[in-house]
Amino acid sequence: MKELSYNIQNIAEIVGERTLLHRPNQNIKHLLTDSRKITDAKSSVFFALEGKRDAHQYINGLYAAGVRSFIITATNFPTDKCPDANFIWVKNALRAMQKLATSHRENFNYPVIGITGSNGKTMVKEWLYQLLVTEKEIIRSPKSYNSQMGVALSVWQMNHFYDLGIFEAGISTVGEMDALAQMIKPNIGVLTNIGAAHDEGFKNRTEKLQEKLKFFKNAEVVILNKGYIGESQNLKNIFTWSLTEKADLQVLSLHKKEGKTLIKAVFHQNEIAIKIPFTDHASVENAITCWATMLYLGYGQNIIEKRMMSLLPVKMRLELKKGINQTDIIDDSYNSDFSSLDIAIDFLNQQNQHPTKTLILSDISQSGIAEKELYQNIAQLIKNKGVKKFIGIGPSLKKHRSYFEEGNLFYDDTDDFLKNFDWESITNETILIKGARHFEFERISKKLSLKVHETVLEINLNAIVNNLNHYKRKLKPGVKLMAMVKAFAYGSGSEEIANLLQHNGVDYLSVAYADEGIELREAGITIPIMVLGPEISNFEAMINYNLEPEVYSLRILKAFADLVSKKKIKEQWIHIKLDTGMHRLGFMEDETEELLSFLKQHPTIKVKSMFSHLAASESDLHHDYTQQQIAEFEKITTNFETELGYTFLKHICNTSAISKWPNAQFDMVRLGIGLYGIEGIIEERNYLANVANLKTTISQIKSLKKGDSVGYGRNGVMQKDGMIATVKIGYADGFPRSLGNGNGEMLINNQRIKTIGNICMDMTMLDLSDFEVNIEDEVLVFGEDLSVYEMAQKLGTIPYEVITNISQRVKRVYYYE
Ligand SMILES: *Cc1c(COP(=O)(O)O)cnc(C)c1O
């Protein structure tokens, strides 16, 4: 059957209320929501989505880039600046996109599995894909595209080449499910675990469950854990599973051994079993859900058993890490389909560290699109997205090399590439490695990545964006946001984090020293940067790199003004720091008169902003003090604006003050620790996502006898016969010595395990007397499941110190889901 095609006229008929179509026959393939992610300008229609920033401002730029079709809401938009373009007016652009997806969905009669739940949606979706792909042509949501917009974009990918759809639907508050249900229209519903995720969006668990169940209104069956059924009587047809009670698939027992779980159950009075290569609780539940789905679909138990045993871990994440020869590596060695390629290339293009972008790609073993068309599309995508160097690995890519630009390299397989590639030819570039699993691209990634000392600090970039958006929502209209990336972005890594923040539209960055600012400029950061601690010796460099100094004393100001006049600079922006009570840096109130008269005499020096810092913004105890600081700040800045005759940005709020002192947001806030998922205000912590996981590995496990001593100074003594594990992190990595001798803990397989003996420089010993662990087990030092607050408390310090103390030799690995 032919692929469905749309022109803009067809789309206008589906969503439009009013139209201005200069090219009604323009063919439309792509729904564009982000002006930075154009795939093919001509065949894209841009949706000016509602958001914090008015998306209409991007239209002229998109027009210049070749986009000719726009769905907009502003009735008075000046369309004359875009002659020969198509405009469709709608009331709400997101709703219009959903309406289009809903209408598109109507064209297909093949079954669609719709998955919702709090946790496990992506894993169940990917596993069902792995389990069913042998005989089905499957279209599924890319990555975890399950939001109001993600679902629309996923459903839009449906076409007649497929014969099964698997989509996930995620909601965070009441009223969101209807649109998702209409677009996906699942025939087979799957409900995964209902956990605590997004609890804040609902009055209670029942309300959350009720909202989720709307998804299944028209499904022929819902597959779910029987435990959820009490509150879901209005479901028509259900297929249940349970670990504890009678159900369609009743699990009898779980046996975990050597990294595998044997799951025995009863189905239709027969005892059946599967074995999966995982032991963690979430994987077991998700595998049971998939098992139930396959049984419902009528698969024979012998096929199910075989496929369950070969389930692969679901890794939807892209990893960003440092590579050889000044490269940055984006590792996506596990997923290879066309839509995830598109997403990965966008992430590649978000990186500004190097002008050259390289893609190493394997054959895509995707069904659904004919091979020839697939590789034509890939070649086009690469060209459109400005990927400079392309390396194709695999027979199919090699066969279709004529679609690609001259000079691109092609290899038969991974071995051919590893053997014959000129490794010296790679330098100073960002390289995306993307391959299907059986190509084993992890071998390429290993060769290109810098050697990793096996302790890593994993940074979740989605979590940072989540936290950024959390604080953005708290800002009053028009308030700008400065993100603090001082001290190596609180230990997370300045360049990568600054790049992410720039991409996500923060207004300002702030660093502690000029050097840090220079590094950011050299890494392609172009947004304004304020330097908190400028030094007279590097003023010149600051001017050259367009870094804006914090001026905190007359001494600094005079030196700076001298340089500005010597260099005959016409206008130079500065930021003035007032000391309203922190008593660290800044002009005290009684110094402001002299400051003012100096500024009046030096009109080339312009105040860009005036700010102060709160000494105890999170504290109730010091409420009055904070209030006084704010009042003094307001008084001085008002006076300066009147006296200088112009306005400037005023800011005093750090992270905690954003929520606690909303009336002090003035023109800008300075967000620091909250970005990294940490808050002084306890109630706020629930809304933040964990950003960093510090992980290490075990070097050796050994058995000792009661009374044996462990480590330097023989401080640790075995209380009984048992094992210890030596792990690869010590005080030189940022695991302080005072956590030794049982004071500190690490997490292995969800077990909290205490240290024994003194912490060494590069190693720590853990007491396994009461625990069983394997040498290959991952060790969590702090993170999602072992909080950094707790570690800080044991150390008698604050999380700020713990995270900024992680040594530079600990590799930072960034991931993006
Ligand atoms: C570090 C810093 C901040 C950020 O503080 P958080 O508590 O991390 O939000 C804000 N302003 C100044 C001047 C700072 O030095």
Care to describe what's here?
The structure is a single chain. With 817 residues, the chain is of the alpha/beta class. The chain has 25 helices and 40 strands. The strands form six sheets. Strands 17, 18, 19, 20, 21, 22, 23, 32, 35, 36, 37, 38, 39 and 40 form a 14-stranded mixed sheet that branches. A nine-stranded mixed sheet has the order 9-10-8-11-12-13-14-15-16, sandwiched between helices. An eight-stranded parallel barrel has the order 24-25-26-27-28-29-30-31, surrounded by five helices. Helix 3 runs parallel beside helix 5 (148-156), helix 4 packs across helix 8 (281-296) and helix 5 (148-156) runs parallel beside helix 6. The protein is globular, with a radius of gyration of 29 Å.
β content, as a range?
A: 15-25%
Helix content: 25-40%
Strand segment tally: 40
How far apart are the termini? 34 Å
The CATH architecture of the largest domain can be named as Alpha-Beta Barrel
Shape, per Cα inertia axes: globular
Rg on CA atoms, Å: 29 Å
What's the CATH H-level superfamily name of the largest domain? Alanine racemase
What small molecules does this complex bind?
pyridoxal-5'-phosphate
The biggest sheet, with number of strands, parallel, antiparallel or mixed sense and barrel status, is: 14 strands, mixed
Provide mean pLDDT, rounded. 93
- Uncertain runs: none
Structural class: alpha/beta
In the CATH hierarchy, the third-tier topology of the largest domain is known as: TIM Barrel
What's the tally of helices? 25
Give the CATH class of the largest domain.
Alpha Beta
The total tally of domains equals 5
Cofactor: pyridoxal 5'-phosphate
EC number: 5.1.1.1
Organism: Pedobacter segetis
Function: Catalyzes the interconversion of L-alanine and D-alanine. May also act on other amino acids.
